[in-house]
Amino acid sequence: NMRLCLRPYRGAEDLRILDENTQTYSGYLGHNLDIILGIRQCPVNSMTLCVTSDPEQEKCIKMRTALKAQLLKPEMVCHKGHSQINCMQAIANGLADVAVFDAGDVYTAGLNYNLIPFMSEIYNLGTDDYYVVAVAKEEDAATEITYLKGKNTCHTGINTAAGWIIPMAYLLSNGWIRSYGCNSIRAAAEYFSKSCVPGALSNEYNTGVPYENMCHLCHGASYRNCRR
Fold first, then answer.
1. How far apart are CA 138 and CA 70, in angstroms?
2. From the record, what ranges are coiled-coil (predicted)?
3. CB atoms near residue 161 (< 10 Å)
4. What is residue 3's predicted lDDT score, i.e. its pLDDT?
5. Can you say whether the dihedral through the CA atoms of 109, 111, 116, 122 is positive or negative?
6. Would you put residue 94 in left (φ > 0), alpha (ψ -120 to 50) or beta?
């Protein structure tokens, strides 16, 4: 026995009987079916996404499974690199096709590896811009953006837009930090007391002198400590 339950839509005013030729899914959808089937057709057989962590790898595998279940093309392949720089190199060398990069990494990818961005997140600002927010403890009334000398700081990563480039550029351009010839890592190391700047000790991101205090506040086991 089959029971049919009709739940009226609040905005509906009436019901109409469908013609016999529209009582199938293909007949009912009409030309819209071509649009639906169109996204399942792609001249590219596979697309390799480069990720840099175990959680990203797991998410990539789940996405690959979901896309395959819907017969969407191209088929996704997951490639795990050890860093964003490594993913840039993988794309440049043909081992991967795409990756998700921070705005700062997009600059590096274009400058050093001739990669191009083709898609961007857009938030509720209506443009490709986004805000950078600095936070401090509410009870710490002595901390303000104009004077952070000797403070402890944490950043999203070396050369990331929101966590490094924009705040450091703001402090340097206003003359609150000595630039040391555009050496932002040295400038930060001698201005702040202790920090966590993932990637600050990696020769992929820092080709100069390693400053240990840039990673003193980072947590993580062995090889993952202070890594981007």
1. 48
2. none
3. 20
4. 55
5. positive
6. left
Tokens 């402090």 locate to 171
Total-model pTM: 0.78
Are the C-beta atoms of 203 and 183 separated by less than 8 Å? no
Q: State the pLDDT at residue 9.
A: 55
Contact at 8 Å (CB) between 64 and 78?
yes
* Three-class secondary structure of residue 47 per DSSP: strand
- Map tokens 């590096």 to a residue: 108
Q: What is the per-residue pLDDT across 192-219, written as a single tens digit (0 to 9) for each?
A: 999 999 999 999 998 889 999 999 999 8
Helices 184-191 and 166-173, packing angle to 10 deg:
80
Helices (H) and strands (E) in the chain, counts: 7, 5
Check residue 99 and give its pLDDT: 97
Domains and CATH numbers, the chain: 44-113 (3.40.190.10), 152-224 (3.40.190.10)
* Interatomic CA distance for residues 41 and 44, integer angstroms: 9
Estimate to the nearest angstrom the gap between the alpha carbon of 32 and the chain centroid. Answer: 33
Location of structure tokens 């600002």: 125
Edge-first strand order for the sheet with 46-51 is: 75-80, 46-51, 98-99
Neighbour count for residue 226 (Cβ, 10 Å): 23
Compute the distance between CA of residue 227 and CA of residue 27 in angstroms, rounded to an integer: 55
The confidence score (pLDDT) of residue 109 equals 96
CB 198 within 8 A of CB 155: yes
